[in-house]
Amino acid sequence: MVEIDHISRLLNDHLKVGENQLILDGTPSTELAERYSTPVYVYCPAIFRERLKLLRQALPDFEVYFSFKANPTPAVIRVFLEEGCGLEIGSGGELIAALRCGCPASKIVFSGPAKSDMDLEAAVKCGVKEIHVESINEIYRLGEVAAKNKSKANVAIRVNPSGVVSGGRVILEGKPTPFGVDEEVLEETARKIEKIESLNLNGLHVYVAAQFLDHSILLSLYEHILEIAANLALIIGRDLDTVNFGSGLGIPYNSTQNALDIKEFGRLMSSKVQEARKSAGLGATQLLIEPGRILAGEGGIYLTRVVDCKVSRGERFVVLDGGLNHHLAATGNLGQVIKRNYPIAVANRMDCEEAVPVNLVGPLCTPLDTFGRNVMLPPVEVGDLIAVFQSGAYGRSTSPLGFLSNPTPPEVFAEGGKTWIIRERLGSESFLWGTDLEPTGLRGAAKG
Ligand SMILES: Cc1ncc(COP(=O)(O)O)c(C=O)c1O
Fold first, then answer.
1. Pairing assessment for the beta strands 300-312 and 242-244 based on DSSP bridges
2. Atom 15 of ligand 1: nearest residue by CA position
3. Pocket lined around ligand 1, Cβ cut-off 6 Å
4. How many helices (H) and strands (E) does the chain have?
5. Substitution candidate for ligand 1 out of 108, 172, 207 with most atoms within 8 A of CB
6. Whole-model pTM?
7. Measuring CA to CA, which residue among 378, 251, 347, 377 is closest to residue 21?
8. Residue 341 class from Cβ within 10 Å (0-12 exposed, 13-18 middle, 19+ buried)?
9. Are 258 and 303 in contact (CB under 8 A)?
10. pLDDT tens across 137-169, in order?
């Protein structure tokens, strides 16, 4: 049987099935594929907005900062900016990109374990809301950079919590990690920051792991963050300006997973926040979250066409024009966080209930380039369209676009029956070789 249950769970007002086809906010997928060719990422901004609305309704005490790395395409970022979100960035490059998208520096928070002096200086000069300091060394470097620029930089200590919270698919908590400073040395770290005149200790930041789907486990993590915040407020003897809870907000990638009960999570969290506000030095503290996938994941579909169908030693292989070069995460090569098969359907055979097991592979010369083994799909023919769901976050941005020199996938918005391109396809000559169309190695070889 086709994975109908999971796919039908993903269908909504904007992702529908009609006349045997997947329809993306009013436009049939075959039309999209013809208009923009394949492979292509199609996003439904209406779904992004809806997810944001649901999140805000569930967690009204929190300011939402969209995690830039989840989908850095400017048009996508602008959707979240227009809705009033801030941005969480993780590099100097993302800082430039965020500013170019029109985000005010006062709505940017900056994390990441390898910020260079140049990154720090850029952040100080433009006056980002907060820099999440990740080590003692970084604290001193930032102190010097801010002093040199005659500034006072707002910092939040990124803390690697002690204790164990399990259930997410990556558990960083309580373990050694390159991210943040250990909770065990929080006091000493805070005191060091307080002695540096060019730094203002603003708050706390914790990002432990991705993909929590069990709200009770996420709740215990967020409660622990409230405890750390209360402790930090006690150490410095004043209320914190901000506490950033990171994310951890997951989405289901296959039929064995249930969606996070965000309403229930929000209900329980809201009473924890009210308690904390009364007792713990968090009276007027601004609470932030910086999610990516829960906002952008479900609004994106990757469409790729079947180039070949073959049988090898009894197994069926369906070969596609796109693969891990465009969508690393969907091939399970982005680490344990998202290893299982993504939800996949044949976009032009949505009504077909017959299904056969196939290995769905991309165009690259490696067995890693596999979207799934024994995926149950309707009998597929050359020219059919494959839709990979949940592709709006960590799709194109995490992929090795240069591997095998295929053109990049364009990105398109689909809304209310209209579609428009938001990023062009780049041919290999422009994005790999820049202006040097005749690679020097070949020139040398020809001469030799
Ligand atoms: C520091 C930080 N914040 C936020 C996020 C967003 O996480 P998610 O997309 O799972 O919500 C990430 C993702 O890696 C991160 O590293």
1. unpaired
2. 207
3. 67, 70, 88, 111, 207, 210, 246-247, 249, 290-294, 393
4. 13, 21
5. 207
6. 0.93
7. 347
8. buried
9. no
10. 999 999 999 999 999 999 999 999 997 665 444
